[in-house]
Structure formats: structure tokens, C-alpha cells
Give the backbone structure.
Amino acid sequence: MNRHLRGLDWLNFFVANFQAGFGPFISIYLTSAGWTLGAIGEVLSAGTIAAMASQVPSGALVDAITRKRTAAAGAIVAVMLSALCIALWPAFLPIASAEVLHAFASSALGPAIAALSLVLVGHAALGERLGRNARYAALGNALAAGLMGLFGYYLSGRAVFLLTAALGLPALAALMAIGEQSVSRSMPADGAPVSATEPAARRGSWRLLGDRRLLIFCLCAALFQLANAAMLPIAAGLVTQRAGRVAPLVIAACIVGPQFITALVSPWAGRIAQSWGRRPVLLIGFVVLPIRGALLAAVVNPFMMILIQLLDGLSAAALGVLTPLIVADITRETGYYTTCLGLVGLAVGGGATLSTTAAGLVADRFGGGASFLSLAWVGLCAAALVAAAMPETRPPAPAQTASTPASTRPDRSPRQG
Amino acid sequence: MPILGKDVVSATGEKMGPIVDVLFNGAGKPLAAVIDFGGFLGVGTRKIAIDWSALLFDMGDKKNVIALDISRAQLEAAPEYQGPDRPVSIVTLPHAGGSGSPPGSPR
């Protein structure tokens, strides 16, 4: 493994740290700064809307920037600025602006790292590379959750955001280690063209929007998040109610535990996706979700919930590796890779937002068990949709692809439904 | 002294969570404090309305401690505060008759 790819490992590791502070924790921080519930809700809504609105534009921007490393660096600096602004200036307008800036930056950062990976290793080795990306991101997430939990408990909310900003520095250093030279060359080691990320070769953006595979995958991903996003918050609420003094530790285990599973199985998921195809791995990730929902509905013991949550690590590995991989398959040689990643991001964000609202309503009215069961049903529909409608996107044979036009449909797979 | 965001501690000095809202009755008298309780990094917190008289203000101390005269078991059994548009159940002191007193008036 050369220096550039090691740099990419650590980039994934440190960038994952960014997301831990900005989620629900911001409401704890603003509460301690004396904010009212109403004002916190408004700022969080602004962040949610910006996160959705920014997906496609940020993806398109990354497509338009030839130097993906510059795009990633810009996004990291923007996230650092928004964390600093939140830490130092907790007034309404600065916080709202920082939330919006963070939304745009993080919608660019994920796609920029995916594009950078594609440029570095090419299509043929992308599955394996994305597996490594997901492993390091999961380890970064686990460390960040632990570290920020300690900072938040023993120091202050402000310390959490200062730490977030500081962690941007090692992320930038990792990005430097990747090196501009290797990124700007046009042919990766395996000789396959990198035109999926090359604006000069762009064509057929509207045809891509009509690509059945892309639309079905967006629908699958949206349904997955509709079933998935609310499970952890509702489980955590029940743990708070049932586990007493140790509840925060149990919730921490519910968050960190699955990350280790993801770190463990992601590289394997990437390799299987390469050798067997995308569909089997995707199906495993989707099938696990309704099982998790049904088990969470059945179990009362908070410690058992930690074990059930470990299943989330399998789904997260499958989705984390397969989303950028399938979109890379679909957008091959079009120049619209990250724009389409943004489109999937929009679908995922929509599903997640609807999930917490809808499941929260069900939980209020009918209890946590009913809420888990409804989420499990949606997850079952998502898995059925993958099984029935999602085609295999792996190209027929790596050797052929350099000369085959992008429009060739890879429908040679024996597993196609 | 501002009260929003102030942490409430248990009778044994354990950190319980911050006050995120105060509910008043029509006469402007505080009825309850809404406390955001539990969770990890903001995941899994529960908001519970606690009878104002269950809060013990110890302002002589440098730390300005607000202590809570309510057991953990009682907090765990308490219904969640659903926001200003929904009926509120206020957790009261044990000797004042358990949890689930009549709905509080709007702020």
C-alpha cells in the first residue's frame, strides 16, 4: 500500500470525527448556552433543510472541480469554520449560518472523498477501496463518539466543538499526504479511464436522470432510511427510561458497538461486491434491517438492545460501501458521479427526516414497540424492492470496460431479478 | 440569574440534566420546570416536567446548585413532556401524591 492510499485511510478516519458533534448534540450545547426550545428547533430545521437542498448542488460542484483534493480541502476548512463559529459565537444568526455552511460542506465532503478514491484506484479496484474507506470512517466515528462524550460530560459543549474544529487539522494533513500529483494524473494504475470524474467527458445528464437503475436505487435508499433513521433514537429513548443510571453508557454502546462491526466487515463487503456482484451484499444489508426492527420491538432488556444494535453495523457496512460503488457503476464515463451521489444523498436525507417524524408520532400514540414494528415493515418493503427490482450494476468483465461504451447495460449477471 | 440551561442535580449530587423550559400558570406563578434528562451526545434524551416545588435552590453555594427532590425511579416512570401544544403531566413530590397531577395551564 503506497503513501497516497494510506493518506486516504486517515482522511476517512479524521473526516468521520466531524459528524459526531453536529448531530443531536448541538441541541444539548445550545441548551447549556441558555437557548429556548423554540430557537433550537428553528436552527435545527434550518440545518435539515440546508442539508437536503445542498446535496445535488454540492455534488455538481465537486463534479465541476477537476482537482478533487482541492474540493475536499475546501469542504474540510468550511466544516472547521462552522465548528469554530458554533463554539465561539452561540447567537442565533451565527449558529444558523454555521449550520447551513456545515450542511453544504458535508454534502460536498463525502462525494469528494468518493471521487478522490475513484481517481486514485480506478473502477476495477473501487469496491475494495470503498471497503477500506468505510472501515476507517467507522473507526473514526467510534473514537469520535467516545471522545466527544467524555469532552461533553467532563468539560463543556464548547469543548466538543473546539475539538471538532481541531480534528480538521489531521484531516487536512492526511489530504496533503495523498498528493496532488497522483490525483491529477488521468490514468490510474489499471489503465481504465477515470472519466466518471472528468468534467471534459460529460454527456447525457438527463439520460442519467432517467436511468432506471439510479431511480430504483434512490427509492431503495430512501425506504431504507425511512425504516432505519428512527430506530436508534427511539431505542435510546427507551434505554433512558429503562436503564436508570447506566443509560448513557448503554446508549453509547448502542452507538459505538455497530461501528466496530462496520469496521470489521466493510473490507469484506467491498471484496464480495467485486467478486460476486453488488446485489448479494446490498440484499444482506437490507434484509438485516427488518430483523433488527422486529427484535427491538420484542426485547425489553436494554442490554439486549446493545446486541441487536450490532446488526446495524452490517447494514451500515453494506450501504456505506455499496452506495458510492453502485453510483460509480451507473455513472461510469459520464462525468456526473458526484452529482448522482448527491441525488442519492437527497433521497437518503428525505427518508431519514420523514422517519424520525413519522416514527415519533407512532411512538407517542402507540408506544415504542408499535413504532419498531412499523419501521420493520417499511424495512421489509425496502428489502423486497431490492430483491425484485434492483438490477446488478457490476460491469460484465473488467478487461472489456475500457473499450465498451457507457451505455452498455451490464445485464449479464445470473442474479438479476 | 438565567435559569434556562442550568443543570439540575439529584439529592446525591449526581448530574441529571439541564432545565430547558419553565411552565407558568395564568397568574404568572411557575408551575413546573422541563428537564432534559439522560441520553448520550443528545441521543435518547427525555424531557420531563417537574413540579416547581420539587426544585431546591441552594444559591448560597458558589456553584448555585439546583437540586431535585425526586427519585430516579419516579423520573423513569414519568411520562415525557410533549411540548406546549399537548397536555402536560407534572411529576410532583412523593408526599404530595405521586406523579401525574392534573394538566398544567399554558405558559
In short: DSSP finds one helix and six strands in chain B. The helical segments of chain B are 72-77. The CA atoms of residues 4 and 104 of chain B lie 19 Å apart. The radius of gyration of chain B is 13 Å.
